[in-house]
Structure formats: structure tokens, C-alpha cells
Amino acid sequence: MLKSRLITAFILIPLVIAALFWLPLSGFAITTIAICMLAAWEWGQLAGMATRQQRVWLALLCGLLLAAMLFTLPSYSHDAHQPQLESSLWAALGWWVVALFLVLFYPASAALWRGSRPLRLLFGVLTIVPFFCGMIALRQYHYDIDHFAGAWWLLFVMLLVWGADSGAYMFGRLFGKHKLAPKVSPGKTWEGFFGGLLSSAIIAWLFALLAPLTVAPGTLIACAVVATLASVLGDLTESMFKREAGIKDSGNLIPGHGGILDRIDSLTAAVPVFACLLLLVFHTL
Questions:
Q1: Is-contact 48 120, C-beta < 8 A?
Q2: What local confidence, expressed as pLDDT, does residue 231 receive?
Q3: Residue of 202, 124, 218 whose CA lies nearest to 167
Q4: What is the DSSP string of 39-104?
Q5: Helix (H, G, I), strand (E, B) or coil at 131
Q6: Which family does this protein fall into (predicted)?
Q7: Quick check: 178 and 146 in contact, CB under 8 A?
Q8: pLDDT reading at 256 higher than 60
Q9: CA dist., res. 163 & res. 138, Å (int)
Q10: For 255, which DSSP code?
Q11: In the predicted model, what is the mean pLDDT of residues 175-194?
């Protein structure tokens, strides 16, 4: 299992970085929509959709919604203060606050949504749509001036998440004794959690020194810390929904890694939260 995970990671990470820097904005948007459609397909299972046909329709509706949002955006926007993006990013901030309470009080909190498919679908919308908007808002920023400015910001967030995941895994394996959220994800520990934060902090510091990020250090640190914490919450939230659905992985599209949601669960929280803080709260960039 570990060998297949490493091989897949060594293949996927360069592809992701290449997509960030080499795809034109339209190609990047289409690729992101495709990823979100696959995520919606897998979310259908978490929402209780048993048939393939229902999940196909959910994925198609997701793609149509995101495409419609994309076509209503002006080309190469210089800010995130477009109604579609701004409302989605604020909604993401609200949703992840709600998700925090759902995770903290699980399994008692599941009584509020366990029997409601519409509510579980709404949770999926609040997870996938703001993720798409955060990706687009960051990638297109100052695109007409510097095609790579937004790519650096997205790479920064992704490195934070990858660092937190890798650090949590290593520190958890070496020192993990105290369970972080045993009722949601028994394998995660507090030692792994703090190890992940440390790894992300080191990556953020190094990246800020080497990459062209023109933001005040205090703002960058605040956004990075909150985004890293959000990434952990995104992982725990998907684990909670999978536990309720009685499944181990959201899918099997990626060898050794499970499904698309299993790979982007942390990013679905980190990207929109980071974008909201950076673009809307601190009004930077």
C-alpha cells in the first residue's frame, strides 16, 4: 500500500504543478471543473445515492453549475469581489465553522443530518463549489499582468496541505499516542497534528523566502496557520461522512490513495478559507 501511494504521489505531484503553471486559465478552469465533477460523483455515495445513474446526474449538474458560474465571471478579474466568488468564499468560511462543530460533537451531531439526503447534498455543495471558486479566484489573480502569480499562491496552499498531511503521518507513526478525534478518525493523533503544523510552518517559511509572494509576513503567517487548520478539518469532515456511509474510501480512482475526495478533502477546506482570508478579509494581493 505504501509503495503504491508513493509511486502515485511521485506521478501526480509533478502533473499538478505542471497544470498550475503551464495550463492557460481556461484549461485550468476546465480541469478544475472535471475534478469537481468527479468529487461530486463520489459525494453522491456519501449522500446516500445508491444507484450509478443518480450519481452521474449529480456530477453532471455539478459541472453545469460550475460552468455557468465560470461563464458569468469577467475575464482575468483583478479581485475576488465578484458576487459569485465573494458569496461562495464567505459561505465556505461559514460552512467550515459549522463543520467544526459537527466534528467536535460527533456522533451526536449526526442526528441532525443523518436521515436527510438534501442536507447531505447541501453539505456537498458547500464543500465543492467554494473549493472551485477559491481555485479560480487565486489562479486568475493578476493573470493579465503575470500569468504565474496565482499559480504561486495555489502552490503555496498545496504545499501547506501536503506538508501537514506528510508531517502528521510521519509524526503520528513515530510518536502518536493520544487520539485526536477517535470517534471520527481513530488513526489520527495529537502528536501527528502538531507534527503536521510544524511541517507546514517550515514549508511556509522556506517558500516565503524563495517564492515571489508579496504579502506582509504577519498576514501570510495568519492565513497559512488558519488554512492548515482548515485542511485538518476538511480531512476529519470527510472521514465523518465516510464513517456514516460505512465506507473506507470515497472511491478507487487513484491507486493507493482511494478516490478524488480522499485526495482533495483537505484542499476543499484550505483553498477557499485561504482565498477568503487573503482576498476578502485582509484585502491583500
A1: yes
A2: 95
A3: 202
A4: HHHHHHHHTT--SHHHHHHHHHHHHHHHHHHHHTSPTT-SSS-SHHHHHHHHHHHHHHHHHHHHHH
A5: helix
A6: Belongs to the CDS family.
A7: no
A8: no
A9: 20
A10: T
A11: 91
In degrees, rounded to 5, the angle at the alpha carbon of residue 225 between the alpha carbons of residues 184 and 214 is: 145
Residue 186 has φ and ψ, to the nearest 5°, of -60, -20
Confidence of residue 285 (pLDDT cuts 50, 70, 90): low
Tell me which amino acid residue 168 is: A
Alpha carbons 178 and 245: distance in angstroms, whole number:
26
66 neighbors 36 (Cβ within 8 angstroms)? yes
> Are the C-beta atoms of residues 168 and 201 closer than 8 Å to each other?
no
- What phi and psi values does residue 175 have, to the nearest 5 degrees? -125, -5
246 phi-psi bin (left φ>0, alpha ψ -120 to 50, beta other): left
* The three grid cell numbers given for residue 80, joined into one nine-digit string: 475576488
56-91 pLDDT, tens digit each? 999 999 999 999 998 887 765 555 667 888 899 999
Q: What residue type is assigned to position 141 of the chain?
A: Y
